[in-house]
Amino acid sequence: MRRLPPYLFGKINKLKYEKRVAGIDVIDLGMGNPTDPPDPVICEKLAEAIKDPRNHRYSVSNGIANLRKEVSLRYARRHGVKLDPNTEVIATIGSKEGFSHMCLALMGPGDTAIVPSPYFPIHVYAVVLASGNVITLDVRDPSRFLSNIAYTCENLYPRPKVVIANFPHNPSSTVIESDFFVELVKLAKRYEFLVLSDFAYADICYDGYKAPSFLSTPGAIDVGVEFTTMSKSYSMAGWRIGFCCGNAEMVRALGTIKGYYDYGIFQAIQIAAIVAMRHCDGSIDSLSAEYQERRDVLCDGLERLGWEIERPKAGMFVWARIPQPWAEMGSIDLAMKLLDEAGVAVSPGRGFGDDGEGYLRLALVENQQRLRQAVREIGRCLRQRGLGAA
Ligand SMILES: Cc1ncc(COP(=O)(O)O)c(C=O)c1O
Predict the structure, then answer these.
(1) Does residue 320 have its Cβ closer than 6 Å to ligand 1?
(2) What is the DSSP letter of 341?
């Protein structure tokens, strides 16, 4: 417990809660928690499956066979990756659960993981919970990230056991091309580390960009696994369903841990997830198009306020550098101010580690009208304090 710091978003979440209780409207761009509903066919299948008494029993912790088969078909269709559904695919209770328990399966005291920074908290704390050590490396320049991995492997003894990849990256929205993974696999083989690729934002891509799957790299399956989720692509975040695919030995290790901890995802959810993957590729495309429009609304608006914004090519976030003079305030105080005075919740970059200071992360989860309103309120709030653009 001593290695787990106080939750940095705690203060902001408390204020958000107090405002809601007081009936004050908050435009919530804090979490990547989709507000769009899943495709109706998914909900209809859930409603049907829930009526079958057989689906109310404990399920299997690896995921039912037809679900694992559907995941392997989807990987073949969307990424050209062949997977054995029996040995190379496992269902998880959201990718966060799978990722955390994989760390527990692989790591112990004395083991080190390299984590991309600024970091999504669970990438650090899953390693901490497994009693491992963490080395964070700035991910925003991917080729420097690679050379720093190599440098760390050359100079650290014992060498890192695990390297975490996460592209499209949360929070920085950094993306890569497939040659990045070719180099990563080479390094993994040379320095004998394992790769955990968190591919949560696999499908939310803009302007024709296509995020490469780690598993589509030759040799990747020898050295790692990839985590995917129904939370983002299908707006099923509350359903808690994701997958871990790739190296059979690692998948088996995760299955062993999960066999002790859980009895599997509610079976009706697994059945509805099969339908989602089989029939809803079209909704993913329209969802991406909607996120892209939201990105443009938010970025256009912030640019009008004088912010210099790098438009993300993928993911669900705008990672906005805080302009002067507000940067001096620190991202936590600025986020508190925006929530308190503008009624807009955002995540302070500091919540993603020291490398995140100087930034705010804004999630594209509210509709375009609400995003326009958010920009107006941010502008008004900062002008009132004499700090806004003219
Ligand atoms: C990078 C990343 N990985 C994993 C997750 C968690 O996904 P899930 O809902 O599948 O646990 C998130 C959610 O925000 C995320 O941003």
Answers:
(1) no
(2) I
This prediction's pTM: 0.96
Residue 200 alpha carbon to ligand 1 centre in Å = 6
Does any domain span residue 35?
Answer: no
Q: Which of 221, 251, 279 is the last residue of a domain?
A: 279
Q: Please check whether residues 263 and 310 belong to one and the same domain.
A: no
Same domain? For 354 and 227 the reply is no
pLDDT by position in tens, the chain (length 390): 888 887 777 788 889 999 999 999 999 999 999 999 999 999 999 999 999 999 999 999 999 999 999 999 999 999 999 999 999 999 999 999 999 999 999 999 999 999 999 999 999 999 999 999 999 999 999 999 999 999 999 999 999 999 999 999 999 999 999 999 999 999 999 999 999 999 999 999 999 999 999 999 999 999 999 999 999 999 999 999 999 999 999 999 999 999 999 999 999 999 999 999 999 999 999 999 999 999 999 999 999 999 999 999 999 999 999 998 899 999 999 999 999 999 999 999 999 999 999 999 999 999 999 999 999 999 999 986 554 443
DSSP 314: B
| Residue 322 CB contacts under 8 Å (≥ 6 apart), including other chains | 329, 331, 334, 349, 358, 359, 360
Among 259, 279, 299, which residue terminates a domain?
279
The bridge status of strand 359-363 relative to strand 317-321 is: antiparallel
Residue 263, in any domain of the structure:
yes
**167 CA distance to ligand 1 centroid (A)?**
12
- Ligand 1 pocket, mutate which of 33, 96, 115, 199 (most atoms under 8 A from CB): 96
Provide the residue range defining the domain that includes 77: 40-279
The number of the ligand 1 atom at minimal distance from the alpha carbon of 98 is 11
The residue whose CA is least distant from atom 1 of ligand 1 is 170
Q: Which atom of ligand 1 is nearest to the CA of 241?
A: 10
Which residues lie closer than 8 Å to 126 by C-beta, 6 or more apart?
99, 100, 102, 103, 104
What CATH number has the domain bearing residue 221? 3.40.640.10
